[in-house]
Automatic annotation (TrEMBL):
It holds the Pfam family HTH_20. Keywords: DNA-binding, Transcription, Transcription regulation. CDD domains: HTH_ARSR (cd00090). This is Metalloregulator ArsR/SmtB family transcription factor. The keyword DNA-binding applies. NCBIfam families: HTH_metalloreg (NF033788).
Length: 119
């Protein structure tokens, strides 16, 4: 399965978001996903299996529990693919950052001048 096929599903993206915050048990992942998406435990398990099989998630046993974590390798591959397209959004975002910094600077200068003028 292609990385974007895996990431195209909102449930799998949400699972990865949860796992990005740290290792979670399959039960904890299921509880959040069931509450947010209203799907069954077997359906959540199937999404976890897809993430494992595609290499996006790793699992390790801890007694009777299964602990899931993000595997960053496929995400790095996605990032490398997206790198070809960053030129379309990076310059406008850089320009926005410059304008925001300019506005903050002007507000600071204006605020300091107003403080100096007040009695």
């Amino acid at each position: 399965m292609h990385a974007f096929d895996v990431l195209g599903d909102p449930v799998r993206r949400r699972i990865l978001e949860l796992l990005a915050d740290g290792e979670m048990t399959s039960g904890a992942v299921c509880a959040v996903i069931q509450a947010e998406f209203g799907i069954s435990q077997p359906a959540v398990s199937q999404h976890l299996k897809v993430l494992r099989d595609a290499g996006f998630a790793a699992v390790r046993p801890d007694g009777a529990r299964r602990l899931y974590t993000v595997n960053s390798d496929p995400l790095q591959e996605v990032d490398a693919w997206l790198d070809r397209f960053r030129r379309f959004w990076a310059p406008p975002l850089d320009a926005l950052a410059t304008e925001l910094a300019r506005g903050k600077r002007e507000r600071r200068l204006r605020d300091s001048e107003e403080k100096d003028e007040s009695p």
